[in-house]
Every structure is written in C-alpha cells, then in structure tokens.
Amino acid sequence: MFVNLPLKIIGLGRYLPSRIVPSSELEGIYALPTGWVERRNATVWQPHYLPPYTWQSCMALFSVGKKHCLSALEQVCRLAGWS
Q1: SS (H, E, C) 31-50
Q2: CA–CA separation, 64 vs 11, rounded Å?
Q3: Which of 33, 36, 48, 52 has most Cβ atoms within 10 angstroms of its Cβ?
Q4: What is the pLDDT of residues 8-57, one digit of tens each?
Q5: What is the C-alpha to C-alpha distance for residues 29 and 9, in angstroms, rounded to an integer?
Q6: Higher confidence at residue 47 or residue 72?
C-alpha cells in the first residue's frame, strides 16, 4: 500500500551504542589469532555493540532527542488520520 504523505527531513543525527567491543573479544568469538583484527583494520576502528531489538526508531530517539521524535510522530499520525 502506498501512502503519499507530505514529509520532510527536519534534521540529521548520529547515534553510537555505548558499548565498544574490544578487538580481543571479536578475536575470541571468531577464533582469530591475537592481533588479527588490529592488523587488518586500523587501530582507529571501534566496533560498537547494538543490543538485540534496537530499532532505527530507537536510535533516532537517542540521536535527536525525545521531544523532536515525539513531535514528528504526532505529525505523521495526524497526517495519516490516526488519532
């Protein structure tokens, strides 16, 4: 079903989960030799752990803030005719 809603992008944000996964943990999970991850990827590379069931909408909420996210959701619901 296609719904034509007058939407616009009102801002951009960035969200990184707080838990950084160390190279040693990845090497343990995938049975890699010690130092393999750092040799293959620059030392500036830091993978972050995203917990299961973390949706893009949740990341948007953390990124732009609850106030802006709820305001956008209210507008979409109103335009779609949902109360």
Answers
A1: CCCCCHHHHHCCCCCCCECC
A2: 8
A3: 36
A4: 877 777 788 888 999 899 899 999 999 898 888 876 678 888 888 777 77
A5: 39
A6: 47
The DSSP annotation for the chain comes to -----------------S-B--HHHHHHHTTPPTTHHHHHS-TT---B---TT--HHHHHHHHH-HHHHHHHHHHHHHHHT--
> Judging by beta carbons within 10 Å of its beta carbon (0-12, 13-18, 19+), is residue 42 exposed, middle or buried?
exposed
Where are the chain's structural domains?
A: 23-80
Angle at alpha carbon of residue 59, lines to 58 and 60, rounded to 5°:
90
CA dist list (Å): 62 to 23, 36, 40, 59, 71 = 26, 33, 31, 5, 14
